[in-house]
Amino acid sequence: MREIVLDTETTGLDPADGHRLIELACVELFNHVPTGRVFHRYVNPERDIPAEATAVHGITADMLAPHPVFAVIADEFLAFIGADRLVIHNAEFDLRFLNAELKRLGRPALGCEVEDTLSLARRRYPGAPASLDALCRRFAIDLSARTKHGARLDCELLAAVYLELIGGRQPGLDLAAAAGSGGAFSALPRPARPPRPHAPSAEELAAHAALLAKLRNPLWNPAEQDEGSPRLG
Fold this sequence. Notes:
By secondary structure, this protein is of the alpha/beta class. The chain is built from 9 helices and 5 strands; from the N terminus they run E-E-E-H-H-H-E-H-E-H-H-H-H-H.
């Protein structure tokens, strides 16, 4: 099962106020495990970036000047996500901006199925903090690199959070990651062992008889072998 963890950074809070997308990242999952395939682009918003937004993500208009506008990356982005499920934290926010950018290009809104991890976290832990930082702390996911918001890092953190929200990963079962990198699976070496003889040794018979002598009403008694069935207490 293919899923895409997605995150954005923007110039502000509402595209209806003229705010634009400035960073877009996607991390591919297969059977809930990252495959290593990533889509990550900075986007020239063709406008200024308010200081309060830069304080959150650290991105300035000068930094984005050499980067393409959304129209240049739109086809590549849509091809990467395909029709697969999107995994987004507070999905309404990111989808508003993505759909606003697509609408400017005369493209239809995204029609993918969406898993909102914010809603998922609130259902699983009602009343508990459900921000990405809070969930990382809950699941002991390293946050040391997250000094500011960034779409790619946030996608990687969210992929780890999502896995915990849906039940967690068993150690050593990174099958999809290995498959995505071309790895091959092989069984662990097992030493050859000679077949055990069917007939017990005299020592084993004696030990078994001694054990039965200590049991009250044992389920199996050698004296009843001729009857063809075990004795049930």
